[in-house]
Known about the structure:
This protein has helices spanning about 25-35, 50, 55-60, 80-90, 105-110, 120-135, 155-165, 190-195, 210-220, 235-245, 255-270, 275-280, 285-290, 295-300, 310-320, and strands spanning about 5, 10, 15-20, 40, 45, 70-75, 95-100, 140-145, 170-175, 200-205, 225. It is of the alpha/beta class. It has two domains: about 5-245, Aldolase class I (TIM Barrel); about 255-320, Putative flavin oxidoreducatase, domain 2 (Non-ribosomal Peptide Synthetase Peptidyl Carrier Protein, Chain A). The strands form two sheets. Strands 3-4-6-7-8-9-10-11 form an eight-stranded parallel barrel, surrounded by six helices. A two-stranded antiparallel ribbon has the order 1-2. Helix 1 (about 25-35) packs across helix 11, helix 4 (about 80-90) runs parallel beside helix 6 and helix 11 (about 255-270) packs antiparallel against helix 15 (about 310-320). Flavin mononucleotide binds near residues 101, 206, 207 and 229.
Amino acid sequence: MNAAFRIACVPIASPLVLAPMAGYTTSALRLLAKEAGCGLVFSETISSKAIFHGNERSWSLMAFQPAERPIALQLLGGDPEIVAHAVTRAEELAPDLIDINLGCPKPKVTSKREGAALLADPVRATAIVRAACKAARAPVTVKLRLPDEGARPEFIDFLRGLQDCGAAALTLHPRTVAEGFGGRARWEVFSAVAERISVPLIASGDAKNADDVRALLGMGCAAVMIGRAAIGNPYLFREILADLAGRPAPAQAPAERLSLCLRHLAMLARESDERTAVLVMRKQLGPYLKTVPGHKQLTAALVAIDRYADLAAAIDSIRRGLL
Length: 323
Ligand SMILES: Cc1cc2nc3c(=O)[nH]c(=O)nc-3n(C[C@H](O)[C@H](O)[C@H](O)COP(=O)(O)O)c2cc1C
């Protein structure tokens, strides 16, 4: 059960996908995930309005390296014309896929009628996806949450409408905005959705291990997106793929996980600068150290370090202590 799949003309070598996660899924994590066998990576969400206004930081979020392919650049926006403009700009980098974000629950996004707010306005949401499909050379995919009413027939009709106007795959995180990240994602909706759409369905929400992936693929999903479980553990993709292939790999030893953490830190510094690398890595130190004895105190000490060289040395010293 190691099924490759396709999104329109784009072959994807494994059914595991790295979730878009703002502040985490920069090139560095995407490359490490790819190296571990992840089939498809997403950029974090990029505001089409910010691209329209020439915002440099937003533009820099589009950057990726050839080894990350296939990659989806994810755009957020509530205006079809502005989204179409951002798609045209994104196309300058020739991404494999363009993804439209209809799932962001943050109040600063939904208050502007963007992201998940569009689930309450299917006509506008469909117009945005149609405009994106028209402007894009690459296949366009859509990532959504559940609307407040859940997976009612109207929602399925909406998904079919997206596919009719050109969406080449759909990713569903089956929680409503109000549910945030609480409780369990409602996996029970996947079978009904997968049966009723003809494009690949990517499952998102709470997948942590090979059993979860097997269960979700068994519900008719073409692929499984992994988000939080891959933070501080990009090797997870390798572990899951090995298990799916029937040859479970040993869990990564804590010292090896810290070697990966050091590589990740160095890659972050190369893609931005040392100061940014420290800030981005700080949020991931807890998960990277999770399997180290005394990890809580160690993490507390590491997150207080400001200088790149000091942080790298401290992680390396913990790593050496584990050998
Ligand atoms: C810190 C964080 C940032 C996220 N940023 C994005 C984003 O930029 N775009 C998006 O579509 N989803 C975003 N998500 C949602 C994830 O892609 C995913 O759908 C969700 O976390 C559920 O999957 P998981 O249980 O595997 O984490 C984010 C989630 C987290 C935890």
